[in-house]
Amino acid sequence: MLDDMTDSLALRERQALCDLAQALGPDAPTLCEGWDAQDLVAHLLVRERDPISSLGNVVPPMSGLTTRAMARRARRPFEMQVETLRSPSPPLRLLPPLDRLINTFEMVVHHEDLRRGQPDWSPRDLPAADVDRLWSQLSRGASFFGRGLPVPTVVRRADTGATATVRKGADPVTVTGDVVELILFLFGRSAVRDLAFDGPEERVAELRSADLAV
To answer: What is the rounded average pLDDT of the residues 118-133?
Structure first.
């Protein structure tokens, strides 16, 4: 079934993340506050392979359950954990569309968390087809991805000018940039480049100072 997934951006980003994690080692810093590469790999494995424990990611009273599950993962050899992460969990291998739905953004964002946690990082030029896939998924789930925004917001692709409303309302702030940078911004990452903000000054200031971390 993996052969059916070889054109999946989610799978390719998974492999690239694992390659980089192996190259950098378990102590490499990431953009996720308090997490090194070991923690990031443990998070991804718990999220995908221990759904009960991973509920703490979305249900705060259960966060201790998630923390303990991650700690158990992190005590195992790092190389073994990375190799486990290389393949989607068995249910996702049987359902490639589901893997693409739930893991495309997850793998892209966490790959960038690891890449951009290093001092010498620079933006990547993804193939146009991958950028279009990301934009399509962002546009379809715009209101979900914008659920934490404090003000009405529109995102605009810098390359094509296409827009998506991520929070409805009058007098929105328009954020323009490359698609990956827009995604990272919506996920609360600080290491983004070349984003332009247009709109009422006070709303721009509120948006730029908001804690959007996911």
So the answer is: 94
